[in-house]
Structures are given as structure tokens and as C-alpha cells.
Amino acid sequence: MSDPQRPRYHFLPPSDWMNDPNGLIQWAGRFHLFYQFSPGMFSGLPNQGATLPGAHWGHAVSDDLVHWEHLPIALAPTPGGADPTGCYSGCAVDHAGVPTLIYTGVMPQKACIATSDDDLLTWTKHPANPVIPAPPEGLEVPGWRDHCAWRDDDAWYQVIGCGVRGVGGALPLYRSPDLVRWEYLGLMCTGDANLTGSMWEVPEFFPLGDQHVLMVHAHPEWWFPYFVGSYDDHRYHGEFRGRVDLGAHYAAPQTLLDSQGRRLAWGWIREGRTRAAQAEAGWSGLMSLPRVMGLDSNGRLTSEPAPEVRALRRAHHAVGAIALAHDSTHQIQGVAGAQLEIVAEFTPAPNGTVGLAVRRSPDGVEETRIEYNFADDRLTIDCEQSSLDLSTDRPNSGGPLHRPPHTPLRLHVFLDASVLEVFAHGRAATSRIYPTRSDSLGLHVFSRKARPSATFDVIGQPGLTSLDVWELAAIWDGTESVPVHA
Ligand code: DQQ
After folding, report:
1. Which of 75, 93, 255, 295 gives 20 to 30 Å between its CA and that of 35?
2. Using an 8 Å Cβ cutoff, are 416 and 339 in contact?
3. DSSP string spanning 347-364?
4. Is the CB of 36 under 6 A from ligand 1?
5. How far is 151 from 324, CA to CA, in rounded Å?
6. Nearest atom in ligand 1 to 88's CA
């Protein structure tokens, strides 16, 4: 807990490497989060020697979406079995009351299942594994892994992340009566390698309203497009609509449907620093806050922080309106911290740029700028000065907010050590920041020079109409461990 870069209220294992969320499911009222986990990768398992373990399924459970209890590792590779060197990503389903995981055993990649008879605490790999031993005959595929399954009418269906050489990402569709015997039905959909990657990893396919949403990893680039469209007759006609997250470090989103009918999503927040720095820290990767997913009136994906995270709020600082002349910056007195929730509203300034500078050192040498240009409708997360450690990623990222014109700009920001999650008008942007100075804790609001207007002077000066800041509590106390056995 002495590590200033380690998140205090986001989910992550006590040590070592984590990546994709897996097997998200609410079971008997409890939220189960599995995740790709490489125990001992940095902490070094006893008598492991040089051969560090491959991908396991770590496991945690929560009753409130905020506090998590580490449970025993759910899946580990079985030398000589269908998953000798790793248990790659997949999903969880309720098969007539039997919790069942569908995952990719490696290497080579094969579809496997496991079941639990003790409320998801321990898992038994099915003797029929691999239930699907290889990709479809005749398909030239760059990869074949990661599972998204659902129940329709009287059968189980699943798609597996894949691609077709020379074409693009592709999702082979399978049907099963019992999750053991699978029939290949053909490709549910394919992408264009020039637009959305040559292979689609971690496909996440689900209904929202009367549409179906597909989120994928546009492998090998690091971005996550989503599609919206109709699914019928085992074919998906999805239209590319944007990126699941506009930031630089959000990855591999997966969802669950909760008992309130909400579509909740978690994503892996990747590191923005070298593997050596990760090894020195002893940990790598964390999970985003839970997000409620929706579709707006234009059929675009919306992401909002689950309201349950308000339980983290402690001291509240309410700051009144501040007039912002162009090219001005104002320090918010009395507010400082690395675990903050910030909600800021600005008046529209037709051709101005306004924003927040967070984790700002008093002299401004370190700061991360979250800004919005009204004319371009563009949110930018400017990390250029986020750290004096030049070995860390310091990218600019962002994109269009599709903010309704003439409405106030509302920025909703979560800071947690080296984690920044921004929500604005249904969009989300997640980046890692690694400030080096202990005094890089300040918060400023600013407006930048408006571009000279082509026809008439600026109507309405930029201004901050309200600013609320909460200090957020920690959910970890540093005593956590992953139980070795149930
Ligand atoms: N990570 C997993 C794979 C998946 C990739 C391995 C996506 O199953 O394709 O840890 O981040």
C-alpha cells in the first residue's frame, strides 16, 4: 500500500499480472468476477523455477460492486490435459442451475468447459474437453479463442474470437443442446481487416433494447470497436459505430446482465509502463469501475459509472461558479488528492476549449489535462506532462462526445493513483498516468484561447457553473491474498 501508483479503490489481485475480465456472472445475488491471472509472474512462486505459470482464472466476488473478496484460483493449466499451458479467456453461463465456464485451453487453442457444484467456489474440468477441438475446417484463421455464449429458444449458442486471413475479424457461430456437443453453423459476421483488425479477440455480443451490440479487440492494434445492428437467422448485421472507450489503456471489455436488467461492463485497464517497471512494482493491470451500458437515441453505446460506486464518497468539496476568461487557469483551493471523484459543469463556449488539469504539481511541471473543444465536439486526455518518468506512456487520446449542442458540458472524472477514468455525455475515456512527484495532487480548471470566430464574436464566455469533488475511500488495506485452496 506504500506504492503511490497502486490503485486504492479499483479491483486488482494482491500481486502479479492480470488482464482480461472473464466469466462475469451474477449468481445467487453475488457478482462474480474472474480474470486472466498469472500468479507468481513477478512475486515468484516457490519452487516454480524459471517456468512461470501460464494464464489462470483468478476469481473474486462482490455483493455491492465496490468491495471484492478474493477467492481461490478457479482454473489452472493441466499439463497433459486440454489446457496444458494456459486457460485463456471465456465466459460463464447458468446451465439449468449448473454454473459452467467456457474457455480456451492452450496450446494449441481448443474450446473447453468446467462446472461447479459449490456455488462457483471450485471447478471441475469436463472429461469431454476439448468440447470443440479445432477451428472450422477449411478456414484460414490467424487465431481462434475467447468465448461469448447465450441461450436462445431451445439451445445454447456461442461465438469464438477468430479471423479469416485476407478478410478480417470473424465470428464462427456454434450451437449446442448441452454445452458439450457443438455444431458449427457458419460465420455469424466478418469484419474488414483495413478497418477493424485482422483478428477479433474477446468478442462480447449482447442485446440492448431491440438491437444487438458487439464489442471486439481489433487485434493486433490496441483498440476496441463496437458495432450495433440486428441479429437474426444466425447472422449479425452490425454497423461500426465507434470505440468502446476513447482513452489509451482500456481493453477486453466483458459484460453481465444483472438481476435489475442492467448490462454491466468491466474492462482490463492495461499498464502504460515498461515490463521492467511492472516487475519492480510487483503488479500489472487492474479492472475498471463497473459501467452501466446503454444505447443513446442515435444508437451509440453509452457508458456510465454504476451508481453503487457513490458508496466510496467521503469528504465533499462543493465549489461554486467560476467565470473563465479565455486563456485562464484557476487552482481549486483546498482540493488535492490522488483518489478523487470530480463532477464539473461548464457553460457552452461556442469556439472555446475548457477543461480540468488533474494531478497537477504546484509549478505545473506535472499535470494531466482533460479538455473539451466545443467547436470540434472533441474530448482530449492530454497525458504529455502526466509524468516526469519519460519511460511511461504519455499519449494524447480522446474523440467525439456527440454532446447535444447548447447543453452544458459535464465531465465526470475518477482518479485513483495511476488510473484516470473520464465519463462525459455517455462516452468513456480511460488512461494510465504515473505522476512522480508527491505534490502532483492539485486540481485546476482552465479555458484556452478561442479560435478567432469566422463570422461573429464568441457568444457566451466560458465558465465553470459547478464543481463537486469527493475524496474516495480505499477498498484494500494491503493484507489481501489469493487463497491457494478453497
Ligand atoms: N488475452 C487472453 C486471450 C485473449 C487476449 C490471454 C485478449 O484469450 O485473446 O490472456 O487480451
Report:
1. 295
2. yes
3. E--TT-EEEEEEEE-TTS
4. yes
5. 54
6. 8
Give, using CA atoms, the residue closest to atom 9 of ligand 1. Answer: 201
Cell of 250: 482500456
Q: From the alpha carbon of 106, which atom of ligand 1 is closest?
A: 8
Give the cell for residue 460: 457566451
With contact defined as beta carbons under 8 Å apart, do 446 and 331 qualify? no
> In angstroms, what is the span from residue 146 Cα to ligand 1's centroid?
7
Per-residue confidence of the chain (486 residues) as pLDDT tens digits?
A: 899 999 999 999 999 999 999 999 999 999 999 999 999 999 876 554 445 569 999 999 999 999 999 999 999 999 999 999 999 999 999 999 999 999 999 999 999 999 999 999 999 999 999 999 999 999 999 999 999 999 998 899 999 999 999 999 999 999 999 999 999 999 999 999 999 999 999 999 999 999 999 999 999 999 999 999 999 999 999 999 999 999 999 999 999 999 999 999 999 999 999 999 999 999 999 999 999 999 999 999 999 999 999 999 999 999 999 999 878 999 999 999 999 999 999 999 887 899 999 999 999 999 999 999 999 999 999 999 999 999 999 999 999 999 998 899 999 999 999 999 999 999 999 999 999 999 999 999 999 876 655 444 445 677 999 999 999 999 999 999 999 877
C-alpha cell at 366: 506535472
Task: Tell whether ligand 1 has an atom less than 6 A from the beta carbon of residue 393.
Answer: no
Question: What is the C-alpha to C-alpha distance for residues 210 and 200, in angstroms, rounded to an integer?
Answer: 24
Do 166 and 140 contact (CB within 8 A), yes or no? yes
Q: How many CB atoms lie under 10 A from the CB of residue 471?
A: 17
Q: Is 288 helix (H, G, I), strand (E, B) or coil?
A: coil
Residue 55 in contact with ligand 1 by CB distance below 6 A: yes
What's the 478 CA to ligand 1 centre distance in angstroms? 28
- What DSSP string runs through 77-114? --TTSSSSSEEEEEEEEEETTEEEEEEEEETTTEEEEE
Grid cell, residue 96, equals 439449468
20 Cβ below 6 A of ligand 1: yes
Question: What grid cell was written down for 227?
Answer: 458495432
Ligand 1 centre to CA of 475 (Å) is 27
Beta bridge partners of 189: 171
Q: Which cell is 294 given?
A: 446503454
413 neighbors 341 (Cβ within 8 angstroms): yes
104 CA: nearest ligand 1 atom = 8
φ, ψ of residue 88 in degrees (nearest 5) = -80, -175
Burial code (b: 16+ CB inside 10 Å, e: under 16) for 399-412 equals: bebebeeeeebbbb
Q: Is the CB of 354 under 6 A from ligand 1?
A: no
Question: Length of the chain, please?
Answer: 486
Single out the residue of 335, 305, 324 nearest to residue 450, CA to CA: 324
